[in-house]
Amino acid sequence: MIQPETAIPEAINAALDALKQTVERENPPRSTRLRVAAAARRAIVPRLKPGKRDHRLDSAYADYRAGMRGMALFRKHIPNHDRLSLWRRRIEEGRLRKTLQKRAQRERKGVASDDKSGFAIVAPTIPPQDRRPDNST
């Protein structure tokens, strides 16, 4: 739902009016106006933190590891699963299945995610010793 214009503070409205008057006075082409709008949006709306985890997937993965599979898993973790069309349901099921299988594969390989930083932690590997058979006996 769109908030009414009165929800915007006076100082921001004044800045928007000043920007609008400047743009009308300069009369730039549409492409320039779009770049100005994009720059204003980047300056105002903060970016999401990189590597932010989706906690809904964390709970789905916990159920997956506990042995939940098939329709029970999909109905629990895909919003409005039963209301989706056949093709949309297949797409969402495949997306969730692929994500969970990928997490399980990474876990089996020894790559875990650190919850605090979002960086991957790789299990240390032991360098192989000389693999040639010992023929000295």
Number of distinct helices: 5
What is the gyration radius calculated from CA atoms? 26 Å
- Which strand-content bin applies to the residues? under 5%
Helix content estimate: 40-55%
- Shape designation: elongated
Termini, distance in Å? 82 Å
Unreliable stretches: none
Name the strands of the widest sheet in spatial order.
Answer: 1-2
Q: Indicate how many domains the architecture comprises.
A: 2
> What average pLDDT do the residues reach?
81
Number of E-state strands: 2
Q: Structural class of the helix and strand makeup?
A: mainly alpha
Largest sheet: 2 strands, antiparallel
Compressed to H and E, one letter per element, the order equals HHHHHEE
Brief overview, please?
By secondary structure, the chain is mainly alpha-helical. Helix content is 55%, strand content 4%.
Description:
The chain is mainly alpha-helical. The chain has 2 domains: 8-44; 55-115. It is built from 5 helices and 2 strands, in the order αααααββ. A two-stranded antiparallel sheet has the order 1-2. Strand 1 and strand 2 form a beta hairpin. It is elongated.
What brief labels describe this structure?
mainly alpha; 137 residues; two-stranded antiparallel ribbon; 2 strands; elongated
How is the secondary structure organized here?
Blueprint lengths: L9 H17 L3 H15 L10 H11 L4 H8 L8 H24 L1 E3 L6 E3 L15
Antiparallel strand pairs: 1-2
Helix pairs in contact: 3-5
